[in-house]
Design goal:
CATH class of the largest domain: Alpha Beta
Largest sheet: 6 strands, antiparallel
Shape: globular
Radius of gyration: 20 Å
Number of domains: 2
Strand content: 15-25%
CATH architecture of the largest domain: 3-Layer(aba) Sandwich
Helix content: 25-40%
Distance between the termini: 13 Å
Low-confidence stretches: none
Bound molecules: NADP nicotinamide-adenine-dinucleotide phosphate
Number of helices: 10
Mean pLDDT: 97
CATH topology of the largest domain: Rossmann fold
Length: 336
């Protein structure tokens, strides 16, 4: 057993994750009472969140430098501290608590982990992104069976689960994504109308085919996609804001147009923010639901095909996600 491990530490606030962070070597201490010592096997990548953390721009996370980074990882319990119940050495576990992700080993309170059925990366994606998708669609979006639902970044880690969850509820899913391969992918997941924003205008398609018909619209991109969703929200519709990927590059964009109050109140519609990290009380119930759907074969997890390995592979994985070329959930294999 080596006595040290590597992790990615944010050393300074910077414009990008790579420029603010460094690989550090840390001592691996035994777990204190109430803690677990876990050997991480896979971590999930959240390139947009990581970039915003590097910029100190995530409002609800107060960062004291230096800080370890990364949110979610799946690992195996190596040892349990005294006073720990419900976990034993050899158990596969997932954490979704910052900064539990970008590190070879994790030593943290047992309450930061959940046991999962197997040490397979699917359980990592389900416990992290799957829970986000379930809460965005059901808790915040208040989705009802058969509604019309628009989803942006629909082929991504979050998006491809959202599409499936909405389709499972008998909803008509309008999926927005970039490129032919992503379009084919989301269609295979149950999307009924796919808008490839590189070849079609989201605003024009929605105005022509879905005027005032979106019961729920889940947007993580912002910009003109958010505008098009808002313009076509149905009476009593819910526009869920779960991110703003398009605003990463030196923005938010300043727009001059009537206040959105005018687009909402005549329809009794709403715009709702979704932030998974603020919904911890709802994680267990959402996790149970997505685990069950997966175990029943109703929900599939797709991983991006590019392989990233080791702590040093995390930087490339973050940048690959930011490039917009990834499809499905991006993870890094930490086994070595
Ligand atoms: N609020 C929450 O609690 C929460 C939880 C999880 C994730 N999120 C957010 O949900 C979104 C999806 O997360 P993910 O980790 O699953 O990522 P992802 O969807 O796998 O990857 C990001 C995708 O966003 C699209 N995109 C559009 N404009 C972009 C830009 N300027 N830069 C980068 N990507 C852009 C790209 O797809 P297309 O080109 O096909 O559009 C890209 O593939 C992110 O915005 C993330 O911050 C929020």
């Amino acid at each position: 057993m080596t006595e040290t491990y590597r992790a990615i530490e944010l050393r300074r606030f910077a414009d990008g994750f790579r420029s603010g962070a460094e690989i550090v070597t840390l001592d691996r201490r035994p777990p204190a009472p109430g803690e677990l010592l876990v050997r991480n096997l896979y971590c999930g990548v959240n390139g947009i969140f990581d970039t915003q953390i590097a910029r100190n721009a995530v409002d609800y996370v107060k960062i004291a430098l230096p800080t370890l980074t990364g949110v979610e990882a799946l690992g195996i319990v190596e040892a349990t501290g005294s006073d720990v119940s419900g976990f034993a050495a050899g158990d596969p576990v997932v954490t979704t608590r910052f900064p539990g992700g970008y590190r070879e080993w994790n030593i943290a309170p047992a309450s930061h982990f959940v046991r999962v059925p197997e040490a397979k990366p699917e359980w990592l994606a389900l416990a992290s992104t799957g829970v986000s998708a379930m809460l965005a669609i059901e808790h915040v979006g208040a989705l009802r069976d058969g509604e019309t639902v628009a989803i942006s970044a629909a082929a991504g880690g979050l998006g491809h689960i959202l599409v499936q969850l909405a389709a499972l509820r008998g909803c008509h899913v309008v999926a927005v994504c970039g490129g032919q391969e992503k379009s084919d992918f989301v269609r295979s997941l149950g999307a009924r109308r796919v808008i490839d924003y590189r070849t079609e205008s989201v605003a024009e398609v929605l105005a022509a085919e879905y005027p005032d018909k979106l019961d729920v619209a889940i947007d993580t991109v912002s910009g003109t996609i958010f505008d098009a969703f808002l313009d076509n929200v149905a009476p009593h519709g819910r526009v869920v804001v779960g991110g703003a990927a398009a605003d990463l590059e030196g923005r938010p964009e300043i727009v001059t147009q009537p206040r959105i109050a005018h687009k909402l109140y005549y329809k009794g519609a709403s715009v709702r923010g979704f932030m998974n990290g603020l919904l911890t009380d709802h994680w267990p119930a959402a996790r149970e639901k997505v685990f069950e759907l997966y175990a029943d074969g109703q929900l599939n997890i797709t991983f991006d095909s590019r392989r990233h390995v080791g702590i040093e592979g995390i930087f490339d994985a973050v940048e690959h996600l930011l490039s917009g070329r990834s499809m499905g959930k991006v993870i890094v294999d930490l086994r070595s």
